[in-house]
Amino acid sequence: MPPSTVCRAAGYLGHRALRRALHRALRRAAPGLVALAACHGDEERPPERDSAAARADSIAAAALRDACSVGPAQVTGEGVGTVRLGMTAEQLRRRCETTDTAFTLGEGALERGLAVHVGQARVVALLGADSTGDTTVTRIIVARRGATTKGGIGVGSNVASLRLRHGRLCGLVGEGRIVAVAPSVPGVSFATSADYSELAMDTAALRSGALPQRARITEIWVHGYPTSCPQ
Fold it and tell me: pTM higher than 0.85, yes or no?
């Protein structure tokens, strides 16, 4: 058997016992011994380098996941922690550990998104196509406790705390719910537990922000659009 064939067979099968057997058989011939040495010298080193590269990639990926799951989860009009509006789905997948999800927002249309853990919070990044056709993050929904505004307001906080920490409020109707907005937190809306049937048609109460003080924030929506209240 030609030395090159022996070399490839040993490298392909990868069994130490086979290589030892080949070594004993090839001792009888110096050319074969040289060929086996070449197998050990050249064929085994690349897997070691590949293994080291794989470990390095794994460590780097874990570090990125840690940056998402351990870092702060502050809510701003630009995003939640490391999850930012406008980033592509591929960028988000590279930056954080994500799970594909699909759901409706009460309007019948199926929305696609990526569920991500940011800090101690789980958020959902809604995806939509931009002008170039890329799939980008168009909105971020916080539906659980963990992510908060600079003032410490998050899911579970009440309207009284929202007003105390962020000043003037007004109300809107959206996704079948009563939503509070604070001009001091632009680009962010706060879905509340306020009774829709009582307030949806009360324009004066919504304009003045006369929402029930004890109503709770049930979700936070980051959309990036300017938010203002009527004068």
Answer: no
